[in-house]
Write a sequence for this structure.
């Protein structure tokens, strides 16, 4: 019997109450009740996100032996250490597969984990193409897995420059007091930094591959190019083959809560416009603005660097505006808002999601939609032009080249 | 840019009397390619489209020439060629440019044969992956067996065939057992909705929750009203777990576009029935459905749970009601009398949450509850339900309430003040306070403070100084709660005063918060924060203040923060961040002290992004020029030179002052639209010696206009002394008449070696009557007479109506490239 089945038949929530929390101390969960997880990718991200309550680390995996050694030291327990992620995914001791690799691996690993009957905790961005995101969404559904995308602002934590969690913002938006359609501006001036140091370098000279690194496996589905240290590890985000620069890095953090705020979790914008210098075919550069428009006229406007009007509200609507630090210009808005209901509760504990199989607050469905916004922006940025999108068919309209960026071929033998 | 075109053309037509066409399409491929490369990467889409349209006009020849320029990785830069080619691919891939796309694709195919380097060929194949069509299939197929290019060729073919991610064909035996089960289920379902419903009902009988949930997920794509009804009608046949699954699923379904109207009437009544079964998961699931359903039925069903004895059930109901639209407060208010304590508290919170003034009597009624938690909830709810009518009850309540509830009453009174005009609030509170016994007056301080009246502040300040004990505490709290900078000085004084040491931590924390208010300008924040830093004691206090200083953009703030770069780690990091943030955001802060501080920051900074920050700091340092205003040498001063640009101001200049701007003591040109325009010396000159320094970027192109008319083409309406990075590969094919220093179209200069990008070139232009002399880095590269050169027509065969202008403007002529100038001075000749 698998561990999870045991937990299930033992009564799930009931089993949790056998050892009271008070006995173990605040925040502690009895070891036998902990779900187990394995981390793929024990570079900076994988090591940084190791300690979330309620799970026990039983396996790590990395294609760089230095990272793997560091990964083994994440716990004092003796744990399994793998070179090939497939071995970790098929390890019967692992309940939850935590994917902390560069994004070009997220799609394949998520699908493989779902096929192996695992639940998935995946770092953002969910995938680096719209097509792979769709595959992940389908696979999670087909194989009945639970999926958590690891950004959290739609349900917890202070939301950057807004100085508040997203929930009260959601209440205000949902009340309709601001009117409709709304425009959301994500810029340095509204409290969001696009991390423009995630840019690539052109003309990388070939370098010898370090002995510790299995470069072929690091690349996996990505096109083969001569190795240069700048492509990998801490700086991979600057290259289209693996990610989407500052937009790829921060996009889901910033945009996912906006999808939630606007109630767009089941759809996507119909147009993306770009204002940017021409982009290189390999190395990612910076941009001035990216504007998304939904079919009802709602807009999300991203300003890079210092661009954009410093006085722009975070949310602007026909009847009112919301500025940084949750300043709203509707007179007496707090009192007026009281008559409206609170936003609906979200499942914010992934372990609850895994045990009850309720969808996690940020799952494969809404996570795919917010990743799609990022990837629409990436496509428009790469091609340097406005793109129109069909949110149902999930394809660009009248743009064959843009559609070739939706489904990108993978290097053999990798497939999703 | 344009001038190279014309010059080339003129050279080609030299000796012919034919008038020269000016249309761009008459440029040669080589010229167009060179011009395009000089503009790569295009700064915006307008220039991009202009350049790519020109490049596309060269057809196959341009592509072949560009691919021919590419070098193996590590042996030079391909960047601009890659920008040009991938830009071209993007441009021709726009719908409606099929003929161009085909032409470029065929050119790539041809280039693939000619190129030999693996990476160059892989680059071309990746372009075909984006724009290739049927024409590319055969040539790419031929490469499939190539050891190193087979893989990119296969990928390109997959993209071209629209089969980039072929649908997975998975045999169930490759899967984990339960994944195999769900896959089989998935394959069984897509036939028709009726069949899906049948399979779903079967699946829901499974003991495996994962299997049940997968079935529901899969069914979602086919769900309709009939499926929902069938499912809801069958709920009684399932166990509580599966019932909860179905209800949770119905909640999710109702969030899909257009489904709520379908789901709600079917699911609502069923959920209401399953609300109280004793199974918490099921109750929670049913409550979730009712939240989506909404309406009075949902409210009354959920409200009934508030009276339930089980606190967990009450909690579920309270959460659901909070998220339900409608008059929830009035629905739950009657239950407050009869419900258990948990129910009472939940109801009070709901009434408060909706700020339900009409149910204030219910709240007042519970102020005397025997249960302390209920009492606390009632007091806490007061501020949300009171109105002006309650004022006379609240003041006595303030004096009689237990200390634990005093703050709640104070907030409630404050809430009632909102109904009074701002000017009357202070007087209203003051009269009540003065009527109170002296020993009770301190209870009024926070309310007094909430009026924001300066007279109130004076009273509270006075009371803080004169009172002791609880009254002094209350006066301090009132000071600390004051909304605005007016209390800052008093708080700082309290922090500095040893006799009020007990308030130190709170005073400094509040002072820092007030001093960091972004509505104050940077220098005001800096001066207050620095005062705070003088008295701060703990690392935490210093850190918060340094974080505030980081946002001031203040030079003295940066210097002050720099004093903490050797402090304990936490303080040091905050200081390093402050210095870095201010320095990077204010490139005008230059000089040795800044340099020393930033070098120090580079050594101490330590955080996950530190590598990038160090990179940014090194770049900043490298670009930082300590601006000492340029001054003439003694010699030049004696000779009578005048400074036109000393690095600090543009007073002597006119024209495009947006694209040409001061940067670290230079005039830097960052072309925004088109070519960046022209920058002129404000005064006109006839004969002169013009000295300046310039710094090129790769492929830079500019020019010095002399004796020219403003905003006309200086090359013809005056003279243009060429500035050009003529050794850049983009200009491989230029003629001697186009090199740097030439009098454009009239006299060619000697081809000199310019300093590489980033280094300064020194130039002198002497214009004395018809005699023109250009000296670059000490070497005379042009020395000629324009009248002689133009005898019998200029070399370019063009009219130069301004060639013999007696006087005119001197200016820098933008051609779309970035470059810099400095140390500009002039001497007028008789």
């Amino acid at each position: 019997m698998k561990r999870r089945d045991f937990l299930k038949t033992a009564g799930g929530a009931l089993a949790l109450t056998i050892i009271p929390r008070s006995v173990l101390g605040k925040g502690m969960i009895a070891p036998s009740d902990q779900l187990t997880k394995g981390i793929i990718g024990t570079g900076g991200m994988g090591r940084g996100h190791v300690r979330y309550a309620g799970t026990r680390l039983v396996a790590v995996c990395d294609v760089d032996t230095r990272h793997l050694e560091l990964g083994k030291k994440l716990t004092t327990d003796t744990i399994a250490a793998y070179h090939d992620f497939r071995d970790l995914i098929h390890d019967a001791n692992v309940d939850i597969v935590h994917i902390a690799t560069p994004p070009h691996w997220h799609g394949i690993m998520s699908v493989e984990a779902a096929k192996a009957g695992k639940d998935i905790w995946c770092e953002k961005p969910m995938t680096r193409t719209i097509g792979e995101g769709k595959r992940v969404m389908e696979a999670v559904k087909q194989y009945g897995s639970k999926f958590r995308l690891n950004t959290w602002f739609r349900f917890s934590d202070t939301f950057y420059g807004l100085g508040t969690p997203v929930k009260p913002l959601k209440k205000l938006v949902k009340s309709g007091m601001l009117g409709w359609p709304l425009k959301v501006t994500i810029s340095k001036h509204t409290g969001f930094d696009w991390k423009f140091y995630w840019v690539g370098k052109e003309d990388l000279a070939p370098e010898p591959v370090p002995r510790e690194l299995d470069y072929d496996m690091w690349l996996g589905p990505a096109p083969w190019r001569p190795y240069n240290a700048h492509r990998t590890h801490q700086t991979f985000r600057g290259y289209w083959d693996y990610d989407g620069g500052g937009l790829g890095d921060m996009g889901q953090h910033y945009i996912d809560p906006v999808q939630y705020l606007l109630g767009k979790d089941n759809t996507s914008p119909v147009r993306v416009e770009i204002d940017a210098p021409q982009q290189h075919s390999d190395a990612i550069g910076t941009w001035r603005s990216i504007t998304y428009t939904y079919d009802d006229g709602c807009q999300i406007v991203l300003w890079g660097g210092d661009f954009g009007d410093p006085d722009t509200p975070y949310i602007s609507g026909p009847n009112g505006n919301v500025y940084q630090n949750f300043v709203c210009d509707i007179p007496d808005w707090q009192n007026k808002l009281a008559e409206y209901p609170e936003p609906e509760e979200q499942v914010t504990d992934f372990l609850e999601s895994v045990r009850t199989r309720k969808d996690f607050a940020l799952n494969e469905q809404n996570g795919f939609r917010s990743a799609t916004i990022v990837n629409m922006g990436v496509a428009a940025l790469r091609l340097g032009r406005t793109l129109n999108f069909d949110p149902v068919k999930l394809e660009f309209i009248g743009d064959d080249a843009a559609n070739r960026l939706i489904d990108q071929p993978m290097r053999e033998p990798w497939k999703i | 840019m344009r001038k190279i075109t014309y010059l080339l053309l003129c050279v080609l037509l030299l000796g012919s009397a034919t008038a020269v066409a000016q249309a761009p399409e008459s440029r040669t491929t080589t010229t167009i390619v060179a011009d395009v490369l000089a503009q790569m990467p295009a700064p915006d889409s307008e220039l991009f489209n202009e350049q790519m349209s020109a490049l596309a006009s060269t057809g196959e020849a341009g592509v072949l020439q560009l691919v021919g320029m590419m070098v193996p990785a590590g042996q030079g830069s391909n960047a601009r060629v890659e920008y040009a080619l991938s830009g071209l691919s993007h441009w021709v891939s726009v719908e409606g440019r099929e003929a161009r796309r085909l032409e470029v694709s065929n050119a790539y195919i041809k280039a693939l044969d000619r190129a030999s380097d693996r990476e160059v060929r892989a680059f071309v194949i990746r372009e075909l992956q984006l724009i290739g069509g049927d024409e590319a299939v055969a040539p790419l197929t031929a490469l499939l067996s190539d050891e190193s290019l087979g893989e990119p060729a296969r990928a390109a073919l997959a993209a071209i065939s629209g089969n980039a991610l072929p649908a997975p064909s998975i045999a169930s035996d490759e899967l984990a057992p339960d994944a195999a089960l769900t896959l089989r289920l998935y394959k069984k379902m897509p036939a028709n909705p009726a069949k899906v419903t049948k399979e779903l009902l079967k699946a829901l009988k499974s003991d495996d929750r994962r299997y049940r949930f997968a079935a529901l997920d899969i069914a979602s794509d086919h769900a309709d009203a009939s499926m929902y009804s069938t499912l809801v009608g069958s709920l009684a046949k399932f166990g509580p777990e599966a019932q909860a699954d179905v209800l949770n699923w119905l909640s999710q379904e109702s969030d899909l576009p257009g489904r709520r109207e379908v789901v709600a009437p079917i699911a609502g009544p069923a959920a209401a029935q399953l609300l109280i079964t004793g199974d918490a998961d099921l109750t929670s699931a049913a409550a979730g459905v009712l939240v989506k359903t909404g309406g009075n039925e949902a409210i009354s069903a959920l409200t009934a749970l508030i009276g339930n004895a089980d606190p967990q059930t009450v909690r579920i109901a309270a959460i659901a009601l909070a998220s339900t639209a409608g008059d929830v407060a009035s629905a739950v208010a009657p239950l407050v009398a009869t419900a258990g304590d948990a129910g009472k508290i939940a109801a009070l919170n709901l009434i408060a949450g909706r700020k339900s003034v009409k149910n204030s009597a219910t709240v007042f009624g519970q102020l005397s509850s025997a249960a302390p938690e209920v009492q606390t909830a009632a007091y806490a709810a007061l501020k949300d339900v009171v109105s002006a009518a309650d004022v006379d009850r609240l003041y006595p309540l303030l004096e009689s309430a237990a200390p634990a509830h005093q703050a709640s009453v104070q907030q409630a009174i404050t809430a009632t003040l909102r109904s009074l005009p701002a000017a009357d609030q202070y007087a209203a509170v003051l009269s009540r306070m003065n009527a109170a016994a002296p020993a009770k007056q301190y209870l009024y301080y926070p309310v007094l403070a909430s009026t924001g009246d300066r007279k109130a502040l004076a009273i509270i300040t006075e009371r803080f100084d004169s009172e002791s004990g609880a009254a002094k505490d209350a006066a301090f709290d009132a000071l600390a709660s004051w909304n605005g900078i007016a209390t800052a000085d008093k708080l700082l004084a309290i922090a500095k005063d040893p006799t009020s040491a007990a308030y130190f931590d709170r005073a400094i924390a509040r002072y820092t918060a007030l001093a960091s208010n972004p509505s104050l300008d940077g220098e005001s924040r800096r001066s207050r924060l620095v005062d705070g830093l003088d008295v701060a004691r703990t690392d935490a206090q210093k850190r918060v203040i340094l974080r505030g200083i980081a946002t001031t953009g203040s030079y003295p703030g940066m210097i002050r923060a720099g004093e903490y770069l050797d402090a304990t780690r936490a303080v040091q990091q905050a200081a390093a961040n402050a210095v870095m943030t201010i320095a990077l955001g204010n490139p005008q802060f230059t000089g040795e002290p800044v340099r020393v501080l930033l070098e120090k920051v580079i050594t101490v900074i330590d955080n996950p992004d530190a590598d990038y920050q160090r990179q940014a700091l090194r770049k900043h340092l490298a670009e930082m020029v300590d601006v000492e205003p340029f001054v003439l040498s003694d010699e030049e001063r004696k000779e009578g030179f005048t400074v036109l640009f000393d690095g600090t101001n543009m007073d002597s200049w006119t024209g495009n002052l947006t694209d040409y701007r001061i940067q670290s003591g230079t005039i830097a040109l960052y072309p925004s639209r088109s070519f960046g325009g022209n920058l002129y010396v404000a005064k006109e000159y006839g004969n002169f010696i013009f000295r300046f320094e310039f710094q090129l970027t790769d492929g830079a192109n500019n020019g010095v206009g002399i004796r020219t008319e403003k905003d006309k083409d200086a090359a013809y309406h005056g003279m243009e002394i060429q500035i050009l990075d003529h050794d850049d590969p983009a200009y491989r094919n230029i003629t001697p008449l186009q090199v740097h220093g030439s009098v454009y179209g009239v006299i060619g200069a000697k081809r000199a070696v310019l300093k590489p990008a980033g280094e300064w070139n020194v130039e002198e232009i002497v214009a004395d009557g018809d005699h023109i002399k250009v000296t670059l880095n000490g070497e005379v590269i042009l020395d000629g007479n324009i009248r002689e050169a133009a005898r019998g027509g200029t070399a370019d065969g063009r009219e130069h109506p301004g060639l013999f202008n007696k006087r005119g403007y001197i200016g820098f002529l933008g051609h779309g490239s970035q470059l810099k100038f400095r140390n500009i001075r002039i001497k007028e000749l008789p």
Remarks:
- The first strand of chain B starts at residue 642 and ends at 645.
- Chain B has 38 helices and 13 strands.
- Residues 1-25 of chain B have pLDDT under 50 and may be disordered.
- Chain B touches chain A through 87 residues (CB under 8 Å).
